[in-house]
Design a protein that fits this description.
This protein has 123 residues and is mainly β. It is built from no helices and seven strands. The chain has one domain: Immunoglobulins (Immunoglobulin-like), CATH 2.60.40.10. The radius of gyration is 22 Å and the shape is elongated. The two termini are 44 Å apart.
Length: 123
């Protein structure tokens, strides 16, 4: 699943099937209403060595939590199928980021020791 934000930069890098050609289009189908549409793609670059396609996508009239079935078409060949979910714009302020905590406190003196790999098997 790919993430699309209602505002801001929506740069995608996707590994696709190898293809040759210079035109890439993205067709979309809303998973709720089954309405078909297309996304506007710009800044398209393709790394043929690793089959990585990069582009900026713009989808018109999206709502938060909306989901799409997406298909990338390179030339006349379908090169990728997936889904896209729409999220509200993200803030990059320090207060809005998740704070991850390790289960072992940093100031503890816990040290891992080599194991003898002995197990008790109950039958």
């Amino acid at each position: 699943m790919q993430t699309y934000f209602t505002s801001g930069s929506n740069i995608f890098t996707i590994r696709t099937k190898p293809f040759s050609g210079n035109s890439v289009t993205m067709s979309l189908q809303d998973m709720t209403t089954q309405v078909n549409s297309t996304a506007s793609l710009s800044g398209i670059t393709y790394d043929s060595y690793e089959s990585l396609l990069s582009f900026t996508a713009s989808i018109q009239q999206t709502n938060t939590a909306q989901e799409f079935r997406a298909t990338l078409i390179g030339g006349e060949t379908e090169i990728w199928h997936g889904s896209i979910q729409v999220y509200a714009s993200q803030s990059y302020e320090a207060n809005s980021k998740s704070n991850y905590r390790n289960q072992i406190p940093v100031d503890s003196n816990i040290v891992s020791h080599t194991s003898t790999n002995e197990y008790v098997i109950l039958t």
